[in-house]
Design a protein that fits this description.
By secondary structure, this protein is an alpha+beta fold. The chain has two domains: 56 residues, no CATH class; 322 residues, Cytochrome-c3 Hydrogenase, chain B (Orthogonal Bundle), CATH 1.10.645.10. The chain has 14 helices and ten strands. Helix 4 packs antiparallel against helix 5, helix 5 runs antiparallel to helix 6 and helix 6 packs antiparallel against helix 11. The longest helix has 28 residues. It is globular, with a radius of gyration of 22 Å.
Length: 394
């Protein structure tokens, strides 16, 4: 498609074919402004998108943030180490356990704490359960963005089954605070493995239905195939990680590249696709869910039947950690998630910085990709990047 000057041509995905001229004059009367969001429901609804349109085609998009609870990193520097666990969960609400793990692992490295083997397996189980419920929520959102609300009803029911397990394990459905420095809060309840396996069968059945209704749907294919393509060359340039990178053929997975917890003892390879569009990213995450189901079954088959679940620690209210710095990371549903922490020997962190993939994906990447897309494709494209605005607001 050509702009009015006839000199710059772009695909609907935002890939520049000939970038020898400047952008069109967006102040022209031919263009109109539209604001989408903020509205709370929806995976990306807590942001506001400023859209410059020509008809129903986007010529420019700018993100506006600041509508959420924020300032987590500075708040953490004013709280004792243990008091930060209820806080870190809020940085990625649908997937809080990765914050718990990264923060705890960073403190353990700085303090020289040895985590028991059984606790490593327990942590891996928690992280894969968290991955499943987060993906199920996302899958319903991706279908809903293209008008297929029934899929969301199915996936939210399956997600609720996983939340029931978290409630049984920790007493909470969303903010579990189960992973703590030195290990985990408790052991598994009696019969927990059986109830997990029942839930896994429900999830597998749900994913079969989703495959038939969503991925074999002519309307979804027509709208999603070829939309918002991510070029593999962009992965390093824009810091793209996780499924958004792997759907473009770049096998980035922290579980394999830098194994942690019990992942070195599990047999798996990262799921990789190559077309890099909205349809492919959805398909890859669907396969990722099946991988998590398999990993959870491997965990129960291989983990110790009991043992110490937490190392001995000092009084948490008077806990001081020697001076140092570290960066610990994990693979969440959106890619590399990491905590950089600096300590100065006091009872408080000296500096905390959270590396959430949503900042790159929801701001830099989205602003570039949505140029020349249709207005009707904004929600579907944003959801396909799987971003959580609290990671941007942190």
């Amino acid at each position: 498609m050509l702009f009015d000057d006839g000199k710059m041509q772009k695909h609907k995905t935002g890939q520049i074919v000939n970038s020898t001229t400047a952008e069109p004059d967006l102040g022209s009367h031919k263009y109109s402004k539209l604001w989408q969001g903020p509205n709370h429901p929806g995976i990306t609804g807590n942001m506001s998108l400023e859209l410059t349109l020509q008809g129903d085609e986007i010529k420019k998009m700018r993100t506006h943030v600041g509508y959420l609870h924020r300032g987590f990193e500075k708040l953490m520097e004013r709280r004792r180490f243990i008091n930060n666990f209820p806080l870190v969960c809020r940085i990625a609400v649908p997937e809080p356990d990765f914050n718990e793990y990264c923060y705890a692992a960073a403190l353990e490295e700085l303090a020289g704490i040895e985590v028991p083997e059984y606790a490593h397996w327990m942590r891996t189980l928690i992280l894969e359960m968290a991955r499943l419920q987060s993906y199920l929520m996302w899958l319903g959102g991706q279908a809903g963005a293209f008008g297929m609300g029934m899929v969301g009803q199915w996936t939210l029911y399956a997600r609720d089954r996983v939340l029931d397990l978290f409630e049984e394990l920790s007493g909470a459905r969303i903010y579990h605070i189960f992973i703590l420095p030195g290990g985990v809060r408790n052991t598994l309840p009696d019969g927990f493995e059986q109830r997990v396996n029942e839930t896994l069968r429900v999830i597998e059945d749900t994913l079969k239905d989703v495959d038939r209704v969503l991925f074999n749907n002519a309307v979804f294919k027509k709208r999603a195939v070829g939309l918002a393509h991510i070029d593999p060359k962009w992965v390093d340039e824009y810091g793209i990680t996780g499924p958004n990178a792997r759907a473009s053929g770049v096998p980035r997975d922290v579980r394999v590249d830098n194994p942690y917890a019990a992942y070195p003892h599990l047999d798996f390879e990262p799921v990789v696709e190559f077309d890099g569009d909205v349809y492919t990213r959805a398909r890859l995450r669907w396969r990722d869910m099946l991988l998590s189901v398999d990993l959870i079954r491997q965990i129960f088959a291989r983990m110790p039947k009991g043992g110490e679940f937490k190392a001995q620690l000092p009084n948490m209210l008077h806990w001081t950690i020697p001076k140092g710095e570290t960066y610990k990371k994990a693979e969440c549903t959106r890619g590399e998630y990491g905590y950089y922490i600096v300590t100065d020997g006091s009872k408080f962190p000296r500096r905390v910085n959270v590396r959430g993939p949503s900042y790159t994906h929801a701001v830099t990447l989205a602003e570039m990709m949505l140029e020349n897309c249709n207005l009707a494709d904004v929600a579907g494209t944003m959801v396909s990047l799987h971003t959580y605005p609290p990671e941007v607001e942190r």
